[in-house]
Amino acid sequence: MSITKSGSKTWIAGLLTATVASLCCITPVLALFSGATGIASTFSWLEPYRPYLIGLTVAVLAFAWYQKLKPKKADIDCECEEDAKPSFWQSKVFLGIVTVFAIAMLAFPKYSHIFFPKQTQKEIVIVDKTAIQQMKLNIRGMTCEACSETINLALSKVPGVLEYKTEFKDGSSTVKFDNSKTNEQEITKAVNETGYKVTDTKPVQ
Q1: Burial class (CB in 10 A: 0-12, 13-18, 19+), 90
Q2: Cα-based distances in Å from 56 to 3, 17, 27, 131
Q3: Are residues 105 and 8 in the same domain?
Q4: Are residue 122 and residue 106 in the same domain, yes or no?
Q5: Cα separation of 143 and 124, whole Å?
Q6: In which domain, by residue range, is 16 found?
Q7: 93 and 125 both lie in a single domain
Q8: Which residue in 19, 13, 108 sits closest to 60, CA to CA?
Q9: Can you tell me whether residue 42 is helix, strand or coil?
Q10: 88-126 pLDDT tens trace
Q11: 167-204: pLDDT as tens digits
Q12: pLDDT value at position 78?
C-alpha cells in the first residue's frame, strides 16, 4: 500500500512540475480564451527557473518509471493472498499517459503560438505619408512565442497601427503607425495592458 501511495505521489509531482515549468507560456493562452489579457504575463517570473523545473520533472518521472519497472522481491515467508491486479491508475499505461502529458507541457512553449488567431495586416489608405512613423518598443516579461502573439494581438486592435513585429528573444516590438490616428502613448498603453511592460521606446528611421 505504501508503494502505491508513493508511486501516486511521484507521478502527481511530475505533472505539477511539468505544468509549472510552462506556466509562463500557458497563461497567455488562457488569457486569450478568457479575454482577461491583463493576466498574460502573470507567471513570466518563472522563466529563469524553467531549466530546473524541467530537470526536476525528468528526475521525478524517471523515478516513477524505475519504481514501476523494477523487479519485485518475492516474500518467501509470507503466506498472504496473491496480489490483486493493479487498477488502471496504478498501471504502466496510465504512467505512460502521464509521461506523454508531461512532455506535452514541457514542449508547450514550442507550439503555444498555434492557439492564437493568425494576424493579418490592416489595409489602410494612407493620405499623408509624412504622418507615418516607426518606433521600437523594448518590452519586459516576454518568454516565448505566446508572449509575442499576445502583444501582436493587442497591437492589431489599436486604430492607426499599420504594421508590427514582436520578438520575444530580444524583448522588443517594432511598430509602424499613422500618427494622425494614434500615438506612442496609446501604443504603449495597449502593450502595458497585456501585463507586459514597455521599458522604453525609440524612433526607427
Answers
A1: middle
A2: 21, 7, 21, 53
A3: yes
A4: no
A5: 31
A6: 2-71+89-112
A7: no
A8: 13
A9: coil
A10: 777 888 889 999 999 999 999 889 888 888 766 556 666
A11: 999 999 999 999 999 999 999 999 999 999 999 999 99
A12: 53
Q: From CA 178, how far away is CA 160, in angstroms rounded? A: 5
Phi-psi region of 141 (alpha: psi -120 to 50; beta: other; left: phi over 0): left
Q: What is the distance between the alpha carbons of residues 75 and 85, in angstroms, rounded to a whole number?
A: 17
Angstrom distance (rounded) from CA 70 to CA 96 = 16
Under 8 Å CB-to-CB from 110, ≥6 apart: which residues? Answer: 145
Statement: residue 83 has pLDDT above 60: no
Contact of 154 with 196, CB cutoff 8 Å: no
- From start to end of the chain, where are the E strands? 132-140, 161-167, 172-178, 197-203
Same domain for 99 and 170, yes or no, is: no
pTM assigned to the model? 0.77
